[in-house]
Amino acid sequence: MDPLRIGVIGTGNIGTAHARSLAREISGAEVAWVYDADPARSTQLADELGANVAPNVEQLIASSDAVVIASPDDRHAEQALLCLDAQRPVLCEKPLAPTVADAQAVVDAEVDLGLRLISVGFMRRFDPGYAALKESLPGIGHALIVHNVHRNEAAPYGLATSMTMTNMAIHEFDINRWLLDDDYATVQVVAGRPGPRTPEGQLDPVLVLLITRGGVIVEIEAFINAAYGYEVRCEVVGSDGTVEMGDGAFLTRRSGRAIGHDVPALWLGRFADAYRRQLQAWVDATQRGRTSGATAWDGLLATITANAAVTAVTAGPQAIETPEVPALYR
Ligand code: ISE
C-alpha cells in the first residue's frame, strides 16, 4: 500500500512533534505538506522533513490524503469542517473546539456526511499506563471514586481559568468517561487561594468535582502553575480495592541521600509513547477507512463538560446535559 501523504496544519510544539514522529517513527505515512500561520516556522520544519509548505489550509487539505490539525484550539473546528467538506480523514488535536457551538457544528457536519472521518487527539487513550488502569478495573469491584492529578510546570499559553477547563482538564473529562464507560451528570469547581504566579482574576489550582450518571465521584486537581514540573496521576478507588497510575517514571534513582526520579517539564515527555501509538493507530485505521480513538462525539462531550465546568466556576454546581447519541457514533 502507498504511504498516506499527510498534511500537518500548525507547526508549533505539538504539530512539530506529530510531524517528526510521522516522518521518522510511523509506518505507512509520510509528511507531504505543512502549513503554519508563521511561514518561517513551517519552512524550517518542511526543510527538516523534506515536506512542502502549503500557502494556505485549503491547498494543504486538497493536496493531502489525510490531515493532522494542530493549530491553536479556536481554529480546530473551522479546519475540521474544511476537511469534512473535502472528505479527508483528520486527526484533530484536542479540544475538538473550545465552544460547544463549534464542536456541535463539526458533529452535525459529520452526521450530515454520514461518514466518520474525525479522530480527536485524546492521546491518553493510547497511554500504556491508562490502558493498564482500565484493564485492572474489574479486579477492584465497583468503581466509587477517581482521584486525578494534572499539573503543569508553568502556564503554557497564559493562565486563564477557562482554558484550564477547555485545554487542560479536558483530558480528564475524556479519559475518566473512557475509563468508567459512563457520562457525567453534574460538575462543580472549588478554588482556594491563588498561588503567587496566578494572574489577578484567575484561579489556580482548582478542584473539579464531577458525579457520573452511574454515581461515581470524579475529582480532578488541575494545577497549571505547579513550578516543579509536569505530572499526571490517576487513582481509582473501588469497592474491593484501589489501583493507581503513577507519573510514568520507570527508573528510581538513589544518590546524595535522596531517592527519586526525574519529573518531565512537559507532556511531550510523559506521553511520548501515547502520542506515537495514537499516530500509528490513526494511520492504520485511515488506511482501512476507519477512525481511531476518540470520535467527534467524544470531542463534543468533553467540550460540553469543560464549558459546564467554566460556568460552575462562577455559578456553582451545574447539571451536564448530554444530547442523544447520533446513530453514526453508536
Ligand atoms: C496541553 O495543551 C496538553 O494537551 C497536555 O496534554 C496537557 O497535559 C496540558 O496541561 C495542556 O496544557
Task: Give a structural overview.
There is one protein chain. Helices cover 37% and strands 24% of the residues. The chain folds into two domains: 4-123 and 273-294, 3-Layer(aba) Sandwich (Rossmann fold), CATH 3.40.50; 125-265 and 304-329, 2-Layer Sandwich (Dihydrodipicolinate Reductase, domain 2), CATH 3.30.360. A hairpin with a 2-residue loop joins strand 13 (253-255) and strand 14 (258-260). The protein contains eleven helices and 16 strands. The radius of gyration is 20 Å and the shape is globular. The model has no long low-confidence stretch (mean pLDDT 96). The strands form three sheets. A seven-stranded mixed sheet has the order 3-2-1-4-5-6-15, with helices on both faces. The chain has helices at 13-24, 39-49, 57-63, 76-85, 100-113, 128-136, 161-168, 170-180, 267-270, 272-287, 296-315, and strands spanning 4-9, 29-35, 52-53, 66-69, 90-93, 118-121, 143-151, 184-191, 206-212, 217-223, 231-238, 242-245, 253-255, 258-260, 294-295, 318-319. The protein is α/β, with parallel strands linked by helices and 330 residues long. Helix 4 packs parallel to helix 5 (100-113) and helix 5 runs antiparallel to helix 11. Bound molecules: (2R,3S,4s,5R,6S)-2,3,4,5,6-pentahydroxycyclohexanone (ISE). Residues 152, 156, 167-168, 171, 267 line the site of (2R,3S,4s,5R,6S)-2,3,4,5,6-pentahydroxycyclohexanone.
Put the structure in a nutshell.
Helices cover 37% and strands 24% of the residues. It is an alpha/beta fold. Helix 4 packs parallel to helix 5.
